[in-house]
C-alpha cells in the first residue's frame, strides 16, 4: 500500500471520506441498480418492469431469487459467453434441477425453445421460451477445480481461470446451501452434440448477439457461473461477458405441454403453486 493510500484510511474519518469519494464510480461488470438503469434493456421490454439487470464478467458468477412467472433473459454479446445454470425451487431448495429428467421426460437430448427444466419431483422449475442460439449443453456440467488446475494451471475462484464448480459453491453459500447441494448444471451458448460413436463434439458458439429467455414456473433461486466450457478445446481460458435481465410476467398455461409427459409436469407445477397461493 502506498503512503498516500495508507494516509487516506489511517483513521475512521479518513476511511469514511475515502469510501464516499468512490461514489459514482462504476465497472462494466456489475449489477445495474435500479435495474431500469441498464444500458442494455432487451427490445420490447419496459425498463420500469425490470427486476434484475447485470453484466457478469468473464470468469464471474451471480445469483438471484425470482418470482414465479418472471422472464430471465441471457445474452451473449461477443459469442464467447458460457452461462452455466442451476435453478432451485426458492421455497424449498431441496427441489432442484434434475438434468436426467430434463432430458428424458421430453424425449429430447438438446436444450431448445420449449424445453422444460425439470426437478426430480416431476415439476417444471423453468422453461426455455426463446432461443436464438441453438448451441447449448446438458451433458457435460461445469468445470471442476481439478480440471482447470490441470488444463490452465490455476482454478482459484479469484484467479485467472476459475472453475464453475467453485463459483457455484460461492453463489450457493449466499443462500445457505453447500457444495453437497449442487447438482449437475446445464449451460447455454457453447454447443455440444453426441457423435455417432458416442463422442461429445464441442460446436462452440453460434456467434455474437444471441440470447435465451427462460420462464420461471415456480419461485426460483438462480445460480449462474460464466466460465469456459469443459469441452472447449482451446488452450487458453476463453469466455466473454454475459448479460442478464429479468422482469415480471405470467407462468406458462398448463395446456402448453405438447406431450402427455410435458402436460403432466406442468399440471404438477400448477398444483404445487396453487396450493401455496402463488
Automatic annotation (TrEMBL):
<dbReference type="Pfam" id="PF09347">
    <property type="entry name" value="DUF1989"/>
</dbReference>
<dbReference type="InterPro" id="IPR017792">
    <property type="entry name" value="UAAP1"/>
</dbReference>
<feature type="domain" description="DUF1989">
    <location>
        <begin position="54"/>
        <end position="221"/>
    </location>
</feature>
<dbReference type="InterPro" id="IPR018959">
    <property type="entry name" value="DUF1989"/>
</dbReference>
<protein>
    <submittedName>
        <fullName>Urea carboxylase</fullName>
    </submittedName>
</protein>
